[in-house]
Amino acid sequence: MNITLHILLTGIGATLLMDLWTLLLRRMGIATLNYAMIGRWAGHLFHAQWRHAAIGKAPPIPGELAWGWLLHYATGLLFAALLVGLAGQGWLHAPTLGPALLFGVVTVLVPLCVIQPALGAGYFAARTPRPFMSCLRSLGTHGVFGVGLYLAANLLANL
Questions:
Q1: Spatial separation of the C-alpha atoms in residues 108 and 118, rounded to whole Å
Q2: Fewer CB within 10 Å, N side or C side of the chain?
């Protein structure tokens, strides 16, 4: 299989598993990220506004939900490519759980240290009602993403 296609399918598969996990959390009554807010944040970047006091109070952006989902999957693809860049292309042909899980867990630093502060939630969700629980939920979700990287790569390697 073409390496680019392999990375794309691995990233999509991992992100899809992450989405199924967040759907399960929502069904259990646990709040998760609304990707429209990511789209809103991205839309405001075009107006040179990087950081918000509270993204939910910022003016809506046309198509923000679609932009949010697009950015969510683009990030999953980028993370899959970074994992392969770090672990080597051989990992795609014989994937192991360790590197994928570790990488998935490390990627939680992006939302905790970049996205949440930009959306107004503060570093490590400090401005949310339950920062520790928010961080744990993010860590778990990114762990699921890491498992998804492994499962998707393993499935593709065995086709």
A1: 15
A2: C
Q: Which long-range contacts (CB under 8 A, 24 or more apart) does 109-117 make?
A: 110/75, 111/33, 111/138, 111/142, 112/138, 115/38, 115/41, 117/51
Mind listing the pLDDT tens digit for each residue in 110-134?
Answer: 999 999 999 999 999 999 999 999 9
The answer to whether 8 and 77 are in contact (CB under 8 A) is: yes
SS3 content of the chain, % helix, strand, coil (to 5): 75, 0, 25
What is the DSSP-derived secondary structure letter of residue 124? G
DSSP label of 111: I
Q: Tell me, what's the pLDDT at 135?
A: 97
Contact 78, 12 (CB under 8 A): no
